[in-house]
Amino acid sequence: MSTEITDKEKVKGWVLYDAHCPWCLRLAGWFEKGLTSRHFELVPLQAPWVHARLGMTEAELLTEIRLLQADGRAFGGAEALLEISRHYRLAWPVRQLARVPVVLRGFRALYRWVARMRPCADGACALNPPANNRRNHWLADLLPLTLLMMLALLTRAMVPAWVFMWAMAFGMFGGCKWLTYREARRRDPAIGRARKWAYLLAWPGMGAAAFLGRKIIPAKPTRTEWVWAFGKTMLGAGLLWGAVRTALPAYPLLAGWIGMIGAILVLHFGTFDLIALGWRQSGVNAVPIMQNPLHAKSLAEFWGGRWNAAFNELAFGHAYRPLRRLTTPAVAMLLVFGLSGIIHELVISLPARGGYGLPTAYFLLQGLGLMLERSRFGCWLGLGQGGRGWLFTVGITAGPAFWLFHPKFIKNVILPMLQAIGAI
To answer: Distance (Å, rounded) from C-alpha 112 to C-alpha 105?
Structure first.
């Protein structure tokens, strides 16, 4: 890193960072090229001239990042980052959000929390490196998820309910995606850059081990698989931009359900399948997210791998296994279903501003149904296999689906979204 002031006439300012903090050093390395191209220099806060220029003690200096501009103005913490963001076009939305006083206070509080969690904020890295490394991993793993969800929450009062729903969904998805990548990267540090960005930006699944692994070469997709994926996409589009209108204006809730099913077919069963087939054609082991859920002969089979495999892998590795160490398998499973309910509350009930508790009740019912299926009585009834298992699975998953996608959600989120995309 540059540690001297050079060519003062061209330099717009100096970004001052803690050179004793490994995390800060890594961030400085990532952003050095971009800052240098914008005529900023990276300088350690420990540089002798910084203390003299800012007139602060070392303890005061090291509490936060600082920006010293060529005109003499100085900024610290969140304000320094926002001032730097003026020189990045992609940061324009963040700056606009920061104009709202309550949002700015949220940015400041978030920055102070992150600063307190830095590896060397309290000297812990010098005293207890292993514990510090673990904390550093957790911070790097979970910070994107926290930031993306907070940014989504900040938009709630500014955008339509359906836009907020997608913002929250993408925020959760992006943060969880990063979490799975970080875990895979620790297991295999030699993951190539191209494969890494392909996983993060061009694959909707979360099976990082399969997608990023290089040992398994999948079979090329057949013509039937391509036709079937295109067919599901076209069927969904037909429901969205055709069948929805037949239910209006007499049956708005029915129209909303038809449109929602159409959207699920277009995305989860159609487009995502096509993306998986494309990656398989390229030799990448992309496991489809939806794996014929209607073929499930038991609830365990349905939730264990056929429905939304992206979330199932994440829930098993990052929720069930840690909980299993603390309690029984049944209780851990029920807690995971409860967590899934809370996640759906954030994406469904929160945008709808109503129906709170219904998605959680739906997923708790799935957990109880799974416990019944695995019980002696359930085994005696044959609830986990054959035709009875299929009927039981359909009844438990589809019967109370109105709890999950409740009327408030259909009315306040789905119908406005259908109108916005020209479906009604």
So the answer is: 11
Q: With respect to residue 151, please indicate whether it lies within any of the assigned structural domains.
A: no
Cβ atoms of 75 and 31 closer than 8 Å: no
Q: Cα(356)–Cα(412) distance, rounded to whole angstroms?
A: 14
Is the predicted pLDDT of residue 350 greater than 90, yes or no? yes
Nearest Cα to Cα of residue 45 among 56, 34, 31, 29: 56
Mention every residue, 6+ apart, whose C-beta is less than 8 A from residue 264. 236
Q: How far apart are CA 208 and CA 193, in angstroms?
A: 14
Angle (CA) 246-250-253 rounded to 5° is 85
Which of 54, 53, 42, 55 has its CA nearest to residue 16?
A: 42
Phi, psi angles (nearest 5°) of residue 74:
-130, 140
| C-beta separation of 151 from 174 below 8 A | no
Provide the residue range defining the domain that includes 116: 13-127
**373 plus 254 within the same structural domain:** yes
**Rounded percentage of the chain residues whose pLDDT exceeds 90:** 43
**Residue finishing a domain among 127, 147, 162:** 127
Residue 67: strand pairing partners: 15, 75
Tell me what pLDDT residue 370 has. Answer: 94
Determine the average pLDDT of the residues in 98-120.
Answer: 74
Token digits of residue 74 = 């100085």
Number of domains in the chain: 2
What whole-number distance in Å separates Cα of residue 401 and Cα of residue 415? 18
The Cα 265–Cα 240 span in angstroms is 10
Of the two residues 113 and 341, the one the predictor is more confident about is 341
Dist. CA 232–CA 262, nearest whole Å: 9
- Which residues are 43's β-sheet partners? 16
Q: Are 351 and 168 in contact (CB under 8 A)?
A: yes
Q: What is the DSSP string of 137-189?
A: HHHHHHHHHHHHHHHHHHTTTTS-HHHHHHHHHHHHHHHHHHHHHHHHHHH-T
First to last CA, the chain: 57
Interval 235-291: pLDDT, tens:
999 999 999 999 999 999 999 999 999 999 999 999 999 999 999 999 999 988 898
Does 305 lie in the same domain as 236? yes
Cα separation, 227 vs 291, whole angstroms: 16
pLDDT band with cut points at 50, 70 and 90 for residue 126:
very low
Domain presence at residue 138: no
